[in-house]
Design goal:
The complex is a heterotrimer of chains A (430), B (323) and C (208).
Chain A lengths: L12 H5 L28 H18 L4 H7 L11 E2 L4 H12 L14 E12 L8 E7 L4 E4 L9 H13 L6 E4 L17 H28 L6 E4 L2 E4 L2 E7 H7 L4 E7 L7 E2 L2 E12 L4 E12 L6 H20 L30 E6 L23 H13 L10 H8 L3
Helix pairs in contact in A: 2-9, 5-6, 6-7, 8-9
Chain B lengths: L4 E3 L4 H9 L5 E4 L5 H6 L7 E4 L9 E4 L3 E5 L4 H5 L2 H6 L1 H9 L3 H4 L4 H6 L5 H4 L37 H8 L3 E6 L2 E6 L21 E9 L6 E7 L10 E10 L2 E10 L6 E2 L1 H7 L2 E2 L3 H4 L15 H18 L1
Parallel strand pairs in B: 1-3, 2-3
Antiparallel strand pairs in B: 4-5, 5-8, 6-7, 6-8, 9-10, 10-11, 11-12, 11-13
Helix pairs in contact in B: 5-9
Chain C lengths: L11 H22 L5 E4 L4 E4 L4 E7 L2 E7 L5 H8 L18 E4 L2 E4 L12 E3 L12 H8 L9 H14 L5 H7 L10 H16 L1
Parallel strand pairs in C: 3-7
Antiparallel strand pairs in C: 1-2, 3-4, 5-6, 5-7
The chains are: A alpha/beta (430), B alpha+beta (323), C alpha+beta (208).
The complex binds flavin-adenine dinucleotide (FAD), iron/sulfur cluster and FE2/S2 (inorganic) cluster (2 copies).
């Protein structure tokens, strides 16, 4: 796991934090290899750790004759097992229940009990990750005299939808339509510092910063409106860019007019991400369920369906959120079935450093994916209440697929990717 | 990629002369989807590319009932996959063509280019000076060989990458070759060579020679053909193992069969003795009969699964004929 | 390393460095260096060193006739991006393995990285830049926005060109036809489910 530079892979995090277990000993060590540098990839270490750990959990459940979900539920923990902190929110039970229903868990048969050469199986796995976000993270809002709004921040959008959700948060508070908001990201020269893309931090860090800036903007506008209309702030109503005096609805002023009347040209505010609450653990949770078919004559695994039930706090934009879940699941499927760096052990050279030998999933490998969001807003974290989703979505997929494969054929494949050669070797005991 | 001369000859004779010119390394160029890959990876670096695409009359498909079908070397793989006559009468070839690479590559790659493409051994395509590139050792033999051959290997252990070649081998096609002013016709079963004959090439073509067309004789009545391919990814992936079969199966009896195997050997593998195991055998005996094939294979450290896979797929393709 | 002086007082290491640069220089110049091949043509303004290893390409790109001199080794992708600055076409793998460079050549989707520019001679090329009419997005482009058929967007020009060829062939594609038609384009973000929706959505709009 470790490349030229010693940095731990963190594979054991899910083992330490997913369940309540008072007598837990975990040993994790790094091995210095000569195989090129290790690079981070969506939830580094946790995909691998979960792949191993959640197969172990299923194995234990089977040994004691218990349903795997039941077993997970009795080992459920309300506090972080590492240091005892209470979670700001945890909806893992809901993820188990709603996911099980969506996949048809009750149809699940005994491992390897199917007839015929193509065997069907159902399996699941849980997920834990951070993804609560934290300071520092800033965003600057500029309200222009034509009523349009600019948002700028040094954070970025790597395809995760940051542009959209930042505009949404500002639009929700200031009631400015989305098409009048322009977002400029990716440059700390034009905008204040924003978080880097990593750790599923962007949404939970940056949306509260925009929220804070928008609330400040609202305060400015309100005091401006009160001064211009010569009433006190309490006497004002606000809706869709217009302040109205409660007792005298004829008296109104819209926000662009306020900017002009104040002779300000632009109103500027900068908001910051609030501190996280003391004494709490902040985590994302989820459970994914896989329905697979294993062709026992070719060793090929086909994933029919993945149900992805996640607790990610508030879902700001369901469309970009689902896209993230699709992406995480399909990349997880790639890890489970195809993707592998193959190195020649005599020369230390990678032999498959190209896109036809290193196999990334294609559109044809894509299963039906059913995202389910089991959470609502997590108000302890921030006024926006969002947690991250980028990494949670990839973490349990491979483990769920491997548990489903076991359920189908009754043989455990303990190494990823589960390519036809490995499956055939395992079935035939080679 | 170093620069080169790009020549557009107007006749096959010009192709011969240009390819044989001394002190200039020349390479034939059809769709170019393999040649450009090889050039970008510095596996070949010709001074001259000889473009075949503008040669007349080499891009036609002509079917004559009762005789067979002639397919020009320049016919695009996608046109083969979608040709009605090929789908109806030479199904294995249409299926194999449909399994090649991706839509975009099928739109450009030609049939001649597909059967003459160089192997995909990752050492050959990577920065290893192995035997096939004129070096001294085969890195795959003791290295990463899960996709390598189980028969016909040594001193090099490639598998032949072409899907269409496997189908054409089962279909007993022949290849028409222009050779310095004359034409010759070679059965495809004699077109490919093993590394023991020459580890640096995959077929008998000599400089100055070019394929002009591929001819497949009409199948005898009662015979049908099919192609199956196992690949790790669902699409855009070379075969792990593939099989083409031409068979006459009535009910549960296999009257006749000719099998060709891909992903198995350095050439599309064809062996009369394998056919004999199944000729006049029952479908219900497949389970025991498949154990009689490939018993002489030389398994490498990471490709043992292929033996099982080939046997299972043989069972499957023959079973499908009776279904 | 101890620096050894040679006769002229130039250190050995610097000497080697100097030779190194020379080699690189002559390599870059190679196409124009063969005396017999290079010819100097005088234009009124300046001298142009022109190699016979460039050839004339005449093609139609996004409906416009283009004539240019190119080296034979120039791929169509490089020609589009470097000569014409049509950088919507992306080069990712440069080996026919990803689909980022997909364009339409005479009605069919192809990988422009695996084609020589000279092979577009006399043919018609359509790139992502050719899909808009004036300021209006093509229904496919619109559909990819509406259905969020992308994440980072890097594969998107290629996806849209593959979809364009697909819908030309099957204006009412089945899901199976969509999956096959789009199977030569990788999306590392794996926006595939929304890509399918986008293609479906565009087909519906284009037929109505
Ligand atoms: C990512 C990727 C995936 C692929 N997957 C598959 C796959 O799954 N299955 C498969 O079968 N192929 C696959 N291919 C290979 C692809 O199909 C071939 O590159 C293509 O068929 C070659 O055709 P071409 O016309 O482009 O050949 P070219 O590149 O033009 O030529 C290939 C070779 O054939 C020679 N040649 C061409 N025409 C003639 C002729 N008339 N006479 C004599 N020699 C000739 C050339 O000199 C050259 O050596 C894949 C390729 C890529 C890049
Ligand atoms: S199998 Fe052949 S091509 Fe591959 S490393 Fe060995 S000699 Fe080279
Ligand atoms: S850049 Fe052309 S296919 Fe990848
Ligand atoms: S959207 Fe990022 S690669 Fe497709």
């Amino acid at each position: 796991m470790v490349g030229a530079y010693p940095s731990g892979a963190g594979c054991s995090w899910p083992l330490r934090s997913l369940y309540k277990c008072p007598n837990l000993k975990i040993e994790e060590y790094s091995v210095l290899t000569n195989a090129g540098r290790a690079r981070a990839m969506r939830a580094p270490g946790n995909v691998q750790g979960t792949f191993a750990f959640e197969q172990m959990i299923d194995t234990i459940a089977e040994k004691i004759g218990m349903d795997p979900i039941e077993f997970r539920k009795i080992n459920y923990t309300d506090v972080d097992p590492d240091w005892g902190g209470k979670y700001t929110s945890k909806k893992l039970i809901e993820a188990y229940d709603q996911g099980a229903k969506a996949i048809g868990w009750e149809k699940r048969n005994k491992p390897g009990s199917g007839e015929g050469t193509v065997k069907r199986g159902i399996g699941m796995a849980s997920q834990i990750w951070w993804g609560g976000g934290s300071p520092p993270g800033y965003a600057t809002l500029k309200l222009n005299s034509d009523g349009s709004l600019n948002i700028s921040s040094g954070t970025q959008d790597i395809g995760t939808g940051t542009y959209t959700i930042l505009a949404q948060v500002a639009s929700e508070i200031l009631e400015i339509p989305m098409d009048k908001i322009q977002v400029t990201l990716g440059d700390t020269e034009t905008g204040p510092y924003g978080t880097a893309s990593g750790g599923s931090m962007t949404a939970p860090t940056m949306t509260p910063a925009v929220y804070d800036a928008a609330v400040q903007m609202m305060d400015k506008l309100k005091s401006g409106a009160a001064a211009i209309l010569e009433v006190s702030e309490d006497e004002l109503n606000y809706s869709n860019g217009i302040f109205t005096v409660k007792n005298d609805p004829q008296k109104t002023i819209d926000i662009s007019k306020i900017v002009n009347e104040l002779n300000a040209r632009t109103l500027v505010t900068t908001g910051a991400r609030n501190a996280n609450p003391d004494g709490y653990a902040i985590n994302t949770f989820g459970a994914q369920f896989a329905d697979v078919e294993v062709d026992t004559e070719t060793g090929k695994i086909k994933v029919n369906k993945i149900v992805a039930a996640h607790d990610i706090g508030r879902a700001i934009n369901p469309m970009t959120l689902n896209n993230q879940i699709h992406g995480g699941v399909i990349q997880g499927l790639g890890f489970a079935l195809f993707e592998e760096r193959i190195m020649d052990s005599y020369t230390g050279k990678t032999v498959n450093a190209n896109f036809h030998d290193y196999k990334v999933p294609t559109i044809k490998d894509t299963p039906e994916i059913v995202p389910i969001i089991v959470s609502e807003t997590d108000t302890l974290i921030s006024p926006v209440g969002a947690k991250g989703v980028g990494e949670p979505a990839i973490i349990p997929t491979a483990a769920a697929i491997s548990n489903a494969v076991y359920n189908a054929i009754g043989v455990r494949i303990k190494s990823a990717p589960m390519t036809p050669d490995k499956v055939l070797n395992a079935i035939n005991n080679l | 990629m170093k620069n080169f001369e790009y020549i557009q000859p107007g006749s096959l004779n010009a192709v011969s002369t240009l390819s044989k010119e001394k002190f200039v390394s020349s390479h034939l160029f059809a769709g170019g989807t393999d040649v450009l890959g090889l050039m970008k990876d510095n596996i070949i670096s010709p001074d001259r590319l000889i473009n075949l695409k503008n040669l007349p009359n080499m891009d036609k498909i002509v079917y004559k009932k009762g005789e067979g079908i002639s397919i020009g070397t320049l016919v695009k793989i996608s046109d083969i996959a979608e040709n009605e006559d090929i789908m109806n009468h030479f199904t294995a070839l249409a299926q194999a063509a449909g399994e090649v690479a991706s839509p975009q590559l099928r739109n450009v790659g030609t049939l001649g280019g597909n059967i003459c493409q160089r192997p995909r051994c990752w050492y050959f395509r990577g920065e290893f000076d192995c035997i096939r590139k004129g070096g001294g050792i085969c890195y795959a033999y003791e290295g990463e060989n899960k996709f390598h051959c189980i028969v016909g290997g040594g001193p090099c252990y490639i598998v032949h990458p072409s899907d269409t070649a496997v189908a054409l081998t089962a279909l007993n096609a022949s290849i028409k070759i222009h050779s310095n002013g004359t034409m010759k016709e070679i059965p495809i079963r004699e077109f490919f060579i093993l590394p023991e004959d020459d580890p640096m090439k995959e077929n008998i073509l000599e400089p100055g020679e070019a394929i002009t067309e591929i001819f497949i004789p009409e199948l005898e009545t009662g015979k049908k053909s099919a192609y199956i391919k196992l690949k790790e990814r669902d699409v855009w992936d070379f075969m792990t193992v593939s099989i083409a079969a031409v068979a006459d199966v009535s009910g549960s009896l296999i009257n006749n069969v000719e099998l060709a195997f891909g992903g198995t050997a350095p050439k599309p593998w064809y062996d009369e003795n394998i056919n004999k195991v199944f000729i006049n055998s029952k479908i219900s005996d497949l389970e025991t009969n498949v154990k009689k094939i490939f018993n002489d294979s030389e398994l490498l450290s990471k490709n043992k699964y292929k033996l099982q896979l080939i046997r299972n797929l043989t069972k499957r393709i023959l079973n499908n004929f009776s279904a | 390393m101890k620096e050894e002086k040679n006769m002229k007082g130039i250190s050995r290491r610097r000497f080697i460095k100097g030779v190194g640069t020379g080699i690189v220089g002559s390599y870059v110049m190679l196409p124009t260096m063969k005396d017999s091949e290079a010819k100097i043509t005088k234009s009124p303004k300046d001298e142009v060193l022109e190699s016979v290893r460039t050839e004339t390409l005449e093609t139609t790109i996004n409906g416009r006739k283009v004539k240019s001199k190119v080296e034979p080794r120039t791929t169509l992708a490089d020609f589009l991006r470097d000569y014409l600055e049509l950088t919507g076409t992306k080069v990712v793998c440069n080996h026919g393995e990803c689909g980022g460079c997909s364009v339409i050549l005479d009605g069919r989707a192809v990988y422009s990285c695996m084609l020589l520019a000279l092979d577009a001679n006399g043919k018609e090329v359509i790139t992502i830049e050719g899909l808009m009419s004036g300021e209006n997005l093509h229904p496919l482009q619109q559909a990819f926005i509406e259905h969020d058929g992308l994440q980072c967007g890097f594969c998107t020009p290629g996806q849209i060109m593959a979809a364009y060829a697909l819908l030309k062939k099957f204006p009412n594609p089945t899901d199976e036809q969509i999956m096959t038609g789009m199977s030569g384009n990788l999306c590392r973000c794996a926006a595939y489910p929304n890509i399918i929706k986008s293609v479906r959505g565009a087909a519906k709009k284009m037929n109505s």
